[in-house]
Amino acid sequence: LNLVLPEHLGDALMGSFGIAFDIDGVILRGTNPIGNSPNALKRLYNHSGSLRIPYLFLTNGGGIPESRRASDLSKLLGVNIDPVQVVQGHSPFKNLLKRFENELIVATGKGEPAVVMSEYGFKKVISLDEYESYFNSIDPLSPYKTWTTKQPFHEQRSSSESVPEFDVTSERVKAAFVVSDPVDWSRDIQVLCDILRSGGLPGEKSEHQPDMYFAADDLEYQAVFPSERLGMGAFRIALQSIFNSIHHKPLEYTSFGKPNPFVFKNAESVLKQLQLMTSDCDVTEVHKDATSHHFETLYMIGDNPSVDIKGAKQAGHPWFSILTRTGVFRGKENHTVYPADQVVDTVEEAVEYILRREG
Ligand code: G3P
Ligand code: MG
Fold first, then answer.
1. Which positions are tagged coiled coil (predicted)?
2. Residues whose beta carbons lie less than 5 angstroms from ion ligand 2
């Protein structure tokens, strides 16, 4: 997007604000809206249903493409959410396209990790589920895994692609991506260790470790169960600890997601684009420059002090952090290690606070 904003509008937008909402523990628990989130979001639209205040979802979760997440959230929350407004933990993986576009890569996690990566443009991506099937007995426990639950999402290649065009059993995997929370930890740890220790081809030997990427590093997060659940950071610790115990060189990896400062920088630039889509911004010219606009305040509403609040604090101006009590954090007062700029009970209260503060 390359927009050039007329000067007078650039001035009019000074002093404006935007909002980033965490999802798990703020907007939803599982698929249940919490803290009156549908009402809170409704206030960010005008009567005709068009966007009044720029906002986005900034979640460390994921597992399905942003377009599908946007339509699922629209249904659950009763407002019209654009895919641009959904930034998931794995969204920055698309920045690695140049490096791995035509290389063999594996993707794992709940949902449709390979579909997510294919939609970003990666041409030779295979899910760990499918990768496993090319290596006989690679998971000695698989015969004992008798679960037959119906998966909410099941990855399916179209019939023309049912057999990958690349040779999975002789080509080295260049990178492994944990796209969303892994489902079968024992299988994933086993097969990832095989890939990482063998230079990308289980059974082979090589000193070179393929690249290892995690979409986020949350130790715990708030799901439906009353107390926190183990997140991708917990899986990373398990994999790393086992890998480092069986291999002579420690695991090298990169984690994305909040609290990394670049996530907040990216959110700021998406919010600038969204500002131009709001009903109060009457910009109709073809050439507009979203980059020239500066927000006075950007609000991060989150439930996890060491992820959402720490991230907003590290990002600095113009970020202002609001901590809710609907998720990981349940304290009476502020969090002691990562105190937020404001603490409220629910996301609805957070939005009320922002609208009052912005007058
Ligand atoms: O798996 C999701 C979890 O790690 C965090 O999601 O929306 O609280 O950033 P969220
Ligand atoms: Mg959360």
1. none
2. 22, 24-25, 303-304
Q: What is the pLDDT along the chain (359 residues), one digit of tens a residue?
A: 334 444 444 444 445 999 999 999 999 999 999 999 999 999 999 999 899 999 999 999 999 999 999 999 999 999 999 999 999 999 999 999 999 999 999 999 999 999 999 999 999 999 999 999 999 999 999 999 987 666 666 676 555 555 677 789 999 999 999 999 999 999 999 999 999 999 999 999 888 999 999 999 999 999 999 999 999 999 999 999 999 999 999 999 999 999 999 999 999 999 999 998 886 665 544 345 555 578 999 999 999 999 999 999 999 999 999 999 999 999 999 999 999 999 999 999 999 999 999 98
Residues 105 and 240 in one domain: yes
The Å distance, Cα 38 to ligand 2 centre, comes to 17
Domain total for the chain? 2
pTM for the whole structure: 0.91
ipTM over 0.95: yes
Q: How far is the CA of 303 from the centre of ligand 2 (A)?
A: 5
Residue 181 DSSP class:
-
308 Cα: distance to centroid of ligand 1 (angstroms): 10
Residues 6 or more apart whose CB falls under 8 angstroms from that of 144 comprise none
**Residue 42 to residue 347: CA distance in whole angstroms:** 12
N-to-C CA span, the chain: 31
Pocket test for ligand 1, best of 76, 87, 218 (most atoms within 8 A of CB): 218
d(CA 95, CA 90): 10
Residue 137 located in a structural domain? yes
Q: Is position 312 within any domain?
A: yes
The two three-digit tokens of residue 133, written as one number: 């099937």
Residues lining ligand 1, judged by CB closer than 6 Å?
22-25, 59-61, 181, 216, 218, 221, 231-232, 304
Question: Count of CB atoms within 10 A of residue 117's CB?
Answer: 27
